[in-house]
Amino acid sequence: MNARLRDDARILAVFAAVVIAFGVLAQHDAGLSQAGTYVAIFAPAAIGLSILLGNVNQISVGQAGFFGIGAYSVGYLTVERGWPFWTAAPLGVVLAAAIGVGLGFVALRFRGHYLAMATLAFGLIAAGVFHAAPFLGHASGITGIPYPQFGPLTISGHAAYWFAWIVAFAIALLSLAMLRGRPGRAFEAIRNDELAAETIGIPTRRYKIIAFAYAGALAAAGGATFAAFLGLVNPDAVGIALSVDVLLMVVLGGSGLISGALFGAALIGYLNVVGHQWDNWREVGYGLLVVLCVIFAPGGVLGTLRRLAARTPSARAAAPLPAVGAAPRVRAPSAEPLAVRGVTKRFGGLVAVDEVSFALQPGTLTALIGPNGAGKTTLFNAICGVGRPTAGRIAIGGIDVTGRQPHRVAALGVGRTFQNARLFGEMTVFENVAAAAAANRRVADRRAREVIARLGLDHLAGVPAKDLAFGDRRRAELARAIAAEPWLLLVDEPAAGLNQPERERLNADLLALRDAGTTLLLIEHDMKLVMAISQRVIVLEFGRVIADAAPAEVQRDPRVVAAYLGTAT
Amino acid sequence: MSALLEVRGLRAGYGALEVLRGVDLDVAAGELVAVLGPNGAGKSTLLRAISRYDATLRGGTIVFDGADLTRASTERTVRLGCLQVPEGRQLFGRMSVEDNLRLGAFVRSRRTVESELGTVYERFPVLAQRRAQAAYTLSGGEQQMLAIGRALMARPKLLMLDEPSTGLAPQIVEQIFAIASELARGGTALLIVEQNAYLTLRHADRAYVLENGAVALAGTAAELSRDERVKAIYLGGSTV
Amino acid sequence: MLQLLIAGLTVGSEFALIALGIHIILRATRVVNFAQGEFSIVGGLIALTCAEALHVNAWFALAGATFAGFVLGLVFEIAVLRPAGRAGGEAGVTIATIGAVFVLLYGHALIPGWGSDSHPLAGFGGPLNIVILSSSKGVGAIVQVQSLWVFALLLVALAALYLFFERTYYGKAIRAAAENPLGARLVGIDVNSARAISVALGIALAAYGGTIIGPITLVGGAAGFALTIKGFVAAIVGGLESPAGCVAGGFVVGVLQVFLQSRMSYDVADPLVYSVLLLMLLVRPQGLFGRRDAVRD
Known about the structure:
The complex is a heterotrimer. Chain A is of the alpha/beta class.
């Protein structure tokens, strides 16, 4: 479990103790009890938004809509249809999750302020539906919602406090478990670098939709308890103001931390009670706090406290790099690892890649070179599924992958690095590599340890990627790219920025991979490196292949000389 | 004659990456100096360091016309007369050709704009023809001329061009270099970064060849165009 | 019918100004200002204070409110938006504008003399109403003279902004800085100042809008956020990235709202208007007048 989740769990434990203590102290004070219950009712919506905003970086101003779905489901089903709370509430949650999936699809199409507006629109429309639907009581909503019955027990009064908090903590623990597992690691990768996440096989679109559905379901759970314990629900209570309040809780408490969401809900709840005579001053205060948080304390109260208390893991002393070990043999398919046929990519009027065709032999190292703007990275992108080629076909291991999404190409056994080393900055080196290594946690961790040791990154395993020195970043990215033991590896300018000893080490690593059966395609500008390790060189100029031969021949080819240096008159 | 631009021991990079590892370079008024070298050698980083954007300076000095640039803002370098036409040109695509040119004179007094505009139109008649068109509708070569014209509107003492030949047909590239030579004859200092070595050497007075962030070769254009080591630097043979 | 149309265009004028202000600020900061409507409300209240406390006529009040909006905009950009952007990127700025909504919405109610009520604002002069006879059926429409002032003043604002951005040197420099900040720096334009001026103009426009509509809809009150949202709808309908689109969208939404409100209760009409927002986002996010490439993520 990573450091943040561990801290989160610890703070939650403390929180639980506080909640229990408060519950005991407040059992005879109806006002306090109710205030405490309110915090528990709004907490789930905040937790959901915290995950959406803090873990997946999707801004949503529509949580109130889902809250309302949960509340109105319970209201309508219990009052009009006589259902018990125990069936009405889950139905509301499921309904909210389904609609959350829909909103997730919409969210895929938008970024930034368009996404905020789309979620805002959703919240407003939900409020409108609540208002307009005849069976939902219009402006006065639904009243007389009965307390939940548990056998002979009516859960009301102070029992409501305990119930609501049990629900809230159950949700918190469920969320922690989710963040600890695959979805959580996928979320973190997506938040750090969506493109790199796709390239290591994470289906980013699917996870974004899951995040929206989950956040919606959580808010609905809160709404269900709201309806049951308040006894009524109306459109005003679940309007846009609530969405903004939830955002407030998350920003102030600390987005990305489950305990942050709880803290934010408690903070707002407490301030609402303490300051209830100074409505306007209080709200102005919230606004100022939000602005101050954004500028000075982006992690909210808890996030900032955590950051202040954290000790930066120091890199252990750099041990001398171990000798290059043999890489595990890869199982390559029998067909050609990569076959590119007539691939063309046009951007508007500009032809970046022009009718490029070649096929790689298994277990070989081929270099792709060419002057600036020749189309090399564009070709890589097309092969990996980043952007669909305008024409032509690409087959990997005999399977046509033209236009497939990057995570599906990666799943076939393809690894890739980027020109600017797109690591997941806030994750440690170990987490970066493990995220790519395998779906199963145990297998992933084992493979990650092995790769890190082999590439001499042991002493940096616990260091956040953003703190790495440049040469180490490149090696870490290579480690991540090979963690899943791909049989086809595309490497984009791996030597850029490396000093001489680092380049020699890179050569050795790449050759070891080739010797283990990996097929490598390398974009590189360092001619010495290219000439030293490649068996075949393909030269691009203006998007076309102008040479495709052994290195020595290419070096002498007058067309290649002219492409790089111009013609000597 | 003291140089207009004096760079000594320049170290610069981006974030954790160090690109330039100690570069020395001079450009005098009326000279056309080329900076050559393979990709990744640091040529663009050099221009960005001088124009003070994107690249972080780690050490060394940059003196332009007597002024220390190491802590200047981009806007200040422009006001001092050091203009750059960057890679990708950075035109105001949705604005007209004429507006782009006029804005080029932002740092100069309004009264001179009209006469400068006239000079630029004389030098680039195709721009005059297209003065009301939006910049993004121009062809690659025309856009390059517009970018150079825009820089000229500020009456630069030093004009720096970053890979002006990218994506352009050979005849257009020749035209652009001819204009550069003419400007140098008129007294402007020119610093041209290019990957295309031999073409640039035909027009330059002096040249530097960068490799891995440092100056590997320096000399007159004539010397370097005969030097086999240039080819080796680009294509990976040995450099002695 | 004509009556409704005129009412719709009047209301739409304010939406148009909100949408245009959002557009100007968006272009400069790449972020949508959630607090635009609040600045509009505050602008109207400032005009009220000018008129009552300083005993000036409506014209000076308008000038005062617009100027105050400009200054507020400068402060907003320099003290709030810029640091928020540095610390939290675009998401941070968006959240900061939501924080600003709270500060303005509840804060303005704390100012003595303002409170959370609406107040009447003196008009710009002229008789109360004009009666127009429509050509067919002899059905007349009663037009408030203030509506005509709103249209006229809207045109004045649009003309002034057009002249500034399209015909003055500095206006062009600001557009250039918004379109290509690096290119602008390379010709010596200070991009930070350009952005601050853009935001100031956007807020000034909000204040201006809140004031000219004041004589009709009163100034003050809690409707600021709803106003911002209607402004969004207008901008999305017309085209967030197109100034003409924002204005046209304002009129479309204004007329739509008035027609819907004449047929059903406010609480049902408003959500229908918001549904248009979602519909446009799904079907044609670049708006009626926008270009396709403006939206792609």
